[in-house]
Structures are given as structure tokens and as C-alpha cells.
Design a protein that fits this description.
Chain lengths: ~110, ~110
Amino acid sequence: QKEVEQDPGPLSVPEGAIVSLNCTYSNSAFQYFMWYRQYSRKGPELLMYTYSSGNKEDGRFTAQVDKSSKYISLFIRDSQPSDSATYLCAMTPGGGADGLTFGKGTHLIIQP
Amino acid sequence: KAGVTQTPRYLIKTRGQQVTLSCSPISGHRSVSWYQQTPGQGLQFLFEYFSETQRNKGNFPGRFSGRQFSNSRSEMNVSTLELGDSALYLCASSLAMGYNEQFFGPGTRLTVL
């Protein structure tokens, strides 16, 4: 079992829909959680950064962390074709002990 | 503020050769991490440098090495290249060791023939 599991997709939704992206993990030491967006042939771009359990909102993006279930989510409201990309979750125990551990990414397609 | 820059962007090498990749972090960032991205394994942590010292290392063979200079710029080296080393090599910078927000460069795409 990999440390971080993420459905690779593709996930195809119509423009304007609410998108839900998820990751599960097995290492209870993870405390810091991130979502990155990666367009084809580009480096990952940091979208959301959260610590421990709870919600964080930034514009159309909401990140949720449920440490009791070892489950994190990213919601995208009013999805746009420009949101079409691969979304990667990442996490770390923090404290400089380790690098980031990534899911393999979900390929999202927003249909105009 | 300029982002993370990596050079070269593309590289083609043959098996057995060695390669050096370069990374300049965001101005003011002192920690540099390197990752390998492949379709099969996804993004995997290689190592992190802070204050010119390797602080953390992922599960990669000794053929993968790196260094950091006093201006925080970093290089990674892969010796005796294998076909399986073909990947996108990504550099990420953060303010300092222990700062978990990492910002990535565009990557260097290495192809080993």
C-alpha cells in the first residue's frame, strides 16, 4: 500500500460544476497538507497549504483535512476550462524531517 | 519576484554518461529540494539542501548527488545514467529548512537513450 493514494482519473466535468478531488494516506505523522496544480510540461504550482484538520478557503478553492479518517479533499467551485490540469496532493510530518510525499495526481478535464 | 529557475530545460544523454542540473531558488529562499517525476512512480523526493548541507535524503541510489552553494543555488548530479533515470527533475525552494511551503520550478526533462 502506498503512503498516499489518489485516483488518477481522468475526471471529466462540465464547466461550472463543483469538483471534488481526494487523497487518502496511511502515515498518521503527516501534519501539513498541500494541493498542487500541474499543467502539462510545467512544474507544480502550490494552490493550498493547510496544517492539521479543518477547512481552508481561497477564492474558488476549499481544502479540507480530516486527520481522524486520514482523508483530504480539494473542492473547486464554478470550475473553468482553465482548471483542466493534474492536481497533486502532498503532505509531510513537518519540522524539516522529510521531503514532501505526493499522491500520483488526478487528471481533471473541464468541458466547455 | 522571480520564481524558481532551472537549467537546462531539456537534456538528452546516453547510458553511462553523467549529468548536472542546476537550480536557482526564489530570492531569499535558502532551502532547495529536488524531486524526480515519472509516469510510473509520480513525484519522489530526492534530497534537500540548506546552508550548503544535505539535510534529508530520499530512497535513491548514491549515483544521485547534489550540492548547494553559498548563494543558495543548487546542482544535482546523476552519474552512470540508466534508462530508468529518464524523468522530469524538479527543484523546489522554501524559505528555510522546516518551512513546508515549497515552490517548484519548471523542471529539467532528462531523456536517457
